């Protein structure tokens, strides 16, 4: 029934306290005693009921992630289950989170949860539905944490309080990540590529996920590439997104970067994120430092003669030192000689120097040993020339580039020489002796050495004597060898001459040489005229007050007119002067001076100056000046009309020049990229135009002699022109600068460009010259022999021998009339190899008795007798003689390896020529008369010849057509002739040269052949000749060499004898072996020697001159009249070549009836 402790006071208080009403009820009970009894009764009832009610509440606690990462949000599930037997009421529970967990939210299935004290006010929990509380919390510490949930109380008694508490432990994951970093080259050169290797390791205990590493390259390093073992790397942010890193399995990242700075650089990699807590952050970062190498290179430059003469050779010495701290590698220095210097030689202490680019490739320069370059050059210009050397490259960074260049300046010596000339008598009579005085002065700044003056007396003067102040004068050459002329002492030459002519005689002296450059060559010539007899005409001279003026500037133009006569005053003196374009009379004109009472006209702004009606006393002169203005740039040359007078007529015209805008002189030089070159090779000509006034601009014209081959515009004072069209031979190439508003035109010295034929092109031509005649000769032999055989076979029916040897074998006359007999009876010879075929073993037999026709000469025809061997055989019926013959023949030739020690002008052991050739021929013969026939033929040839000595090959093929005739002069002698045409295609190569070209060949052949029989042998003496004319087309080979068309002729004359011995092999097959011996003479002409030079044309050719030829073979006749012949021959016996020939032939006679 329950104890008293569960009585009125405690039961009602507990019940009302937990629902918040206990205090109020108790106060009301104390105030209202009327209800005391009722309350007591209720309390008694309640206590009695509680004493008997039980509810076994059980606590359960679970967590969704017992191994979270720090920062993860986890969820605890607190379950209160009622195991009965009664429902539990006024249930309270608590779950206070440990310190390492931070409350996020709570979701109770019933009741409410207070996160501040952990109290869960549940209320009633029946036995069917457990009460649940979901608490979400964030893990804030890596330490393990245990969360405990407790059931605090309920109205009903709990029979098993031991299950009123439950716990759940979370152990956050940890991963000890560490980074190591190395660099493959800690002391690289600036510009070098280095490789950083970052190794990321996990010491555990857990796997690390979503790992990222930060490694952004510092300034001074330029990203090249990155190679992660896993994940990706962004060069822009420096983030390596690694992903998962398993404990014990490191990951790597290799970053390639180019060093762009000379300062020390430190590159740091840091673990920037991991899902797991890292218990040791001290190893999460690693660095690697590079210190780029440095080498302070310094240049100095000296010249052995800072004040040379033009034409002197000077020496520059360039010294390259390394101040350190590291040695320098890959060093190059640029020192291209400027215009005005021509390279003689260059001597580097190490490395090499290239003239065309001016690059000194030094290599390695240590801090101990400086390197030097000595350049010797000839001075070719008179202006100041500065030559600068500059360090153009070093693998190492140079901390002080201010000392990377050095210069040396030369100032060639100059001496302004000037000539003046006077004559003792300007109006001598014929026969007078006059004296010219030539004076050479030096306006400095330097003294002049090696001075010569040219003054040869003109026609009308005869040399008398010469008096030089120093040096010598040669009246034959007119050369005054002056020597040294100082700035203090002029030198003079007096020349005494006798007047032998009449009229005006002008004598001119010119400075022809000085070791020093002359800055003003305009005063290097002086002239004076004399007038012999009569009144001398006036002499006019003009000069500008300044040699050059600026654009729109003004200078004076002075005219001086002299009267060289001794006694006559000149009147009516006058001239006109139309000023050149760009020059006008100034405003005001500034006219000053006079010429007697003459009228001077010079209108301001006008373009002309005139003098009219002036007068000059004897031996006197007059002069006047006018100011002129230059209105356009350029050299203005002013020329007057001739000066005239009343008494002496016309005199001379005067010329004077002024430069408006002050054009600067230029010098043009020309170089070739390849000299000598070969035909078809590209050659680049480089023209350099230099001037003391800056870099000229304009057009340069390149000429081959007088022929323009190209033009190009200058760029920075230089221009290049490339051509591959220069022909074989020597070419004088010049480059002409056309000048401009500020620069004077100039032309380079001629450059002799030699263009040679490529050696392989010469070898290809030699291959053509060697092999083509052999191919022609083999074809000639084939066609001539085939025609001879066709004619022999065409006459085989009636007349002629039964067995007849021919050019390709042995001819059997099976179509002859077997009944034809000679006029006189004959008996078989016991020695005849065919005697046994008549049925008698020995003895003689009269054949005339069995043959009725006595009109034939075939008494010795053994095969004819064969038809009557049996005495009982009836005479056969005569068959009509066939008048057509079809035939076909194949002719092959093999040339053994031929060599001639002097074939190319030099000994060689390599084979000069060898190869093979095949001719296929076929034809048709028509017998028009018993002693006359004609025929046509066609054929195809293919040849392939090679030369080891020339590294060449000539192959080709072609088709042939032709016709022939045969004429039986008598029963033992016949004549044949043929003509044929062949079209040939050639394919040749030698070394790197190759070409294809066509050819045309004509053949004419003829011969006389005799046929005689004795003692069973057939003997055929013959004399034959064939000649070939061939033209091979011009071509351009693969190297660009043009070869002209080639014409040659070749042929063979031969004479000899063949011997045939016929044998009856069977009743249907007759055989006739044969042998023969001939003497051959090969003849050749070739026009290729006129177009080429050695080694293009061999000194010896293959088939040439005398040799012997042996032949042999076998002919067979089959049933029906068909014939087959095979044979071979060996040519060149007793000569230097070995040519083997084989033949196979078949023919079939037939009748058109």
Automatic annotation (TrEMBL):
SUPFAM superfamilies on file: Autotransporter
Annotated segments matching region Disordered: 821-855
Composition bias, Polar residues: 827-855
UniProt protein name: Putative repeat protein (TIGR01451 family)
InterPro entries the UniProt entry points to: Autotransporte_beta, Autotransporte_beta_dom_sf, Big_3_5, Chlamydia_OmcB, DUF11_rpt, DUF7933, Ig-like_fold, OmcB-like_DUF11
Stretches assigned to the Autotransporter domain: 879-1150
One Pfam family cited in the UniProt record for this chain: Big_3_5
Organism: Bradyrhizobium macuxiense
């Amino acid at each position: 029934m329950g104890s008293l402790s569960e009585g009125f006071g405690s039961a009602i208080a507990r019940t009302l306290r937990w629902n918040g009403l206990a205090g109020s009820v108790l106060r009301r009970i104390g105030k209202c005693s009327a209800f005391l009894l009722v309350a007591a009764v209720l309390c008694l009832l309640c206590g009695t009921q509680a004493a008997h009610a039980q509810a076994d509440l059980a606590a359960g606690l679970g967590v969704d992630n017992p191994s979270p990462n720090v920062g993860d949000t986890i969820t605890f599930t607190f379950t209160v289950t009622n195991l009965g037997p009664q429902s539990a009421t006024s249930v309270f529970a608590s779950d206070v989170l440990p310190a390492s967990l931070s409350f996020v939210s709570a979701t109770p299935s019933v009741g409410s949860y207070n996160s501040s004290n952990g109290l869960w006010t549940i209320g009633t929990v029946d036995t069917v539905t457990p009460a649940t509380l979901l608490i979400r919390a964030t893990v804030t510490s890596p330490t393990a944490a245990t969360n405990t949930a407790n059931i605090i109380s309920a109205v009903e008694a709990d029979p098993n309080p031991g299950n009123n508490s439950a716990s759940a432990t979370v152990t956050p994951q940890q991963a000890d990540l560490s980074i190591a970093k190395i660099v493959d080259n800690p002391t690289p050169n600036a510009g070098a590529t280095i490789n950083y290797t970052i190794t990321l390791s996990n010491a555990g205990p857990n796997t690390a996920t979503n790992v990222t590493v930060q490694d952004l390259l510092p300034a001074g390093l330029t990203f090249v590439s990155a190679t992660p073992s896993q994940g990706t790397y962004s060069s822009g942010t420096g983030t390596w997104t690694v992903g998962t890193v398993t404990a014990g399995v490191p990951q790597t990242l290799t970053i390639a970067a180019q060093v762009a700075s000379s300062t020390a650089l430190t590159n740091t990699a840091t673990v920037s994120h991991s899902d797991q807590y890292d218990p040791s952050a001290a190893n999460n970062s690693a660095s690697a430092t590079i210190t780029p190498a440095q080498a302070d290179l310094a240049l100095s430059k000296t010249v052995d003669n800072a004040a040379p003469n033009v034409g002197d050779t000077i020496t520059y010495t360039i010294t390259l030192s390394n101040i350190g701290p590291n040695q320098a590698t890959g060093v190059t220095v640029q020192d291209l000689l400027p215009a005005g210097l021509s390279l003689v030689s260059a001597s580097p202490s190490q490395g090499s120097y290239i003239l065309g680019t001016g690059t000194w490739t030094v290599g390695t320069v240590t801090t101990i040993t400086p390197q030097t370059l000595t350049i010797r050059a000839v001075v070719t210009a008179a202006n100041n020339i500065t030559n600068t050397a500059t360090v153009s490259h070093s693998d190492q960074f140079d901390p002080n580039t201010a000392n990377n260049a050095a210069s040396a300046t030369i100032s060639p010596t100059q001496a302004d020489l000037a000539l003046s000339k006077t004559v003792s008598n300007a109006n001598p009579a014929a026969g007078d002796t006059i004296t010219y005085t030539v004076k050479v002065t030096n306006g400095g700044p330097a003294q002049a050495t090696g001075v010569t003056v040219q003054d040869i007396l003109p026609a009308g003067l005869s040399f008398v004597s010469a008096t030089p102040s120093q040096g010598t004068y040669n009246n034959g050459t007119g050369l005054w060898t002056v020597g040294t002329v100082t700035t203090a002492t002029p030198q003079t030459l007096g020349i005494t001459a006798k007047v032998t002519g009449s009229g005006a005689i002008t004598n001119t002296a010119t400075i022809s040489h000085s070791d020093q450059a002359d800055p003003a060559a305009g005063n290097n010539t002086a002239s004076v005229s004399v007038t012999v007899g009569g009144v001398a005409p006036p002499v006019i001279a003009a000069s500008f007050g300044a040699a050059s003026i600026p654009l729109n500037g003004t200078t004076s133009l002075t005219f001086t007119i002299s009267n060289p006569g001794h006694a006559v005053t000149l009147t009516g003196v006058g001239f006109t002067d139309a000023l050149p374009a760009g020059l006008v009379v100034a405003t005001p004109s500034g006219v000053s001076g006079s010429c007697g009472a003459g009228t001077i006209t010079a209108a301001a702004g006008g373009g002309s100056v005139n003098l009219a009606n002036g007068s000059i006393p004897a031996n006197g002169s007059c002069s006047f000046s006018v100011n002129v203005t230059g209105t356009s740039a350029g050299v203005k040359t002013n020329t007057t009309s001739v000066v005239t007078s009343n008494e002496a007529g016309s005199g001379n015209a005067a010329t004077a020049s002024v430069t408006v805008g002050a054009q600067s002189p230029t010098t043009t030089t020309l170089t070739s990229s390849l000299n000598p070159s070969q035909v078809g090779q590209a050659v680049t000509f480089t023209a350099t135009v230099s001037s003391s006034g800056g870099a000229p601009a304009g057009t340069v014209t390149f000429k081959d002699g007088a022929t323009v081959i190209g033009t190009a515009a200058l760029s920075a004072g230089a221009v290049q022109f490339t051509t591959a069209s220069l022909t074989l031979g020597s070419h004088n190439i010049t480059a002409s600068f056309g000048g401009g508003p500020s620069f004077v035109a100039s032309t380079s010295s001629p450059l002799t460009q030699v263009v040679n034929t490529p050696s392989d092109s010469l070898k290809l031509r030699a291959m053509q010259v060697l092999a083509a005649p052999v191919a022609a000769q083999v074809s000639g032999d084939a066609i001539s022999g085939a025609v001879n055989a066709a004619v022999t076979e065409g006459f085989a029916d009636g007349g002629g021998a039964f067995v007849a040897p021919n050019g390709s074998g042995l001819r059997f006359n099976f179509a002859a009339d077997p009944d034809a007999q000679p006029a006189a009876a004959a008996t078989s010879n016991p020695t005849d190899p065919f005697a046994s075929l008549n049925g008698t073993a020995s003895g003689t037999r009269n054949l005339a008795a069995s043959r009725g026709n006595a009109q034939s000469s075939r008494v010795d025809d053994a095969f004819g007798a064969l038809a009557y061997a049996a005495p009982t055989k009836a005479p056969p019926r005569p068959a009509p003689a066939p008048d057509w013959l079809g035939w076909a023949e194949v002719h092959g030739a093999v040339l053994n390896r031929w060599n001639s020690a002097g074939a190319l002008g030099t000994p060689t052991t390599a084979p000069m020529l060898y190869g093979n050739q095949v001719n296929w021929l076929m034809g048709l013969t028509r017998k028009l008369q018993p002693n006359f026939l004609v025929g046509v033929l066609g054929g195809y040839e293919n040849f392939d010849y090679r030369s080891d000595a020339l590294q060449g090959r000539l192959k080709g093929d072609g088709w042939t057509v032709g016709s022939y005739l045969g004429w039986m002069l008598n029963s033992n002698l016949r004549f044949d002739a043929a003509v044929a045409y062949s079209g040939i295609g050639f394919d040749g190569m030698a070394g790197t040269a190759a070409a294809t070209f066509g050819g045309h060949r004509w053949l004419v052949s003829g011969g006389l052949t005799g046929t005689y029989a004795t003692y069973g042998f057939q003997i055929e003496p013959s004399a034959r000749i064939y000649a070939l004319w061939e033209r091979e087309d011009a071509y351009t080979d693969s190297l660009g060499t043009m070869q002209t068309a080639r014409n040659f002729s070749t042929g063979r004359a031969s004479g000899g004898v063949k011997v045939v011995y016929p044998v009856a092999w069977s009743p249907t097959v007759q055989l006739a072996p044969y042998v023969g011996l001939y003497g051959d003479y090969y003849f050749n002409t070739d026009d290729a020697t006129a177009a080429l030079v050695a080694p293009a044309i061999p000194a010896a050719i293959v088939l040439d001159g005398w040799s012997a030829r042996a032949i042999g073979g076998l002919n067979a006749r089959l049933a029906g009249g068909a014939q087959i012949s095979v044979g071979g021959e060996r040519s060149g016996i007793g000569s230097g070549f070995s040519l083997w020939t084989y033949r196979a032939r078949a023919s079939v006679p037939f009748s058109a009836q």
